[in-house]
From TrEMBL:
Residues 17-246 form the ER-bound oxygenase mpaB/mpaB'/Rubber oxygenase catalytic domain. Pfam families: MPAB_Lcp_cat. This is DUF2236 domain-containing protein. InterPro entries: MPAB/Lcp_cat_dom (IPR018713). One of its GO terms (molecular function) is oxidoreductase activity.
Amino acid sequence: MTSIEEIVVQPPQSATWQVHLDRSMWVGGVRGLMLQALHPLAMRGVWQNSNFQEDPFGRLRRTADFVGRVTFGSPQEADEIGRRVRGIHKALRIHDPDTGRTHRVDDPELLLWVHCAEVSSYLEVARRGGLALTERQADRYLREQRRSAAYVGLHPDDVPGSCAEMDAYFKHVRPALRVTEEAASTVRFLLWPRLPRELRRLSPGKPAYFPFGALCYYTLPDWARRMYGALPEVPRATVTAALRAFRMGLNSLPEPLHDHAFLPATRKMLHASRERLGAAGYDVGKGLKGLTDPRRWPAAPAA
């Protein structure tokens, strides 16, 4: 009999499913980009080696594809995208104008920063938005994300695996962070992005994007907002209420409708995941999100 480990990288019983199926991930993703930008070398790596300025949504969707494959994809799909990402990073370099030195994009310190900024954003935004996770479940999520970090080339033992370890990591790295010209431009751009060509038809509705971008900004840690100073401060309770309303609205969308936000390849992968889980006895009548309910698991869960 096929085991759940052969069907998906992370099983429905994982804390990762609770977080990664929550629609607050879109806020967490943009918040993660804003936080990542505070590391000068990491930001210059993005600036010098991608078309982020022209297509920020493309980068967000590609990140969503990676996260989806190393969560809901098969082990083979996760291994494939891991090899692809490691191969791309291995070939890229970063020029630091402050020192004149050239650095590898796959430098472990840079990979660790990107990973921690990303997964901590997913977790913190989801919990603040109302996802009920205990401290033990939050720690479990970060431990599970060590596996995701391994796909980009990090050693799991070098990656924070609890909330306390993540807090200690940020305390350690904060002295190296600063707002470079590229970081300031990135935050301004994420608050008011240029739409990619295929979405230009949505330009009349672009002003509606700003509240979303501002929500992502206001969910940043206090110390990060103080560094940026891009928007005037608002009461924390107001931000939390807005985040909860946003999360509730997106979580009410049917899964097929919500999935149109992803790349076609991501949607195909998610469809295949639903089919494999259905064949293994899971009730996928309400999609992958429905599987956060243990009552939809097989009577004797695949193991």
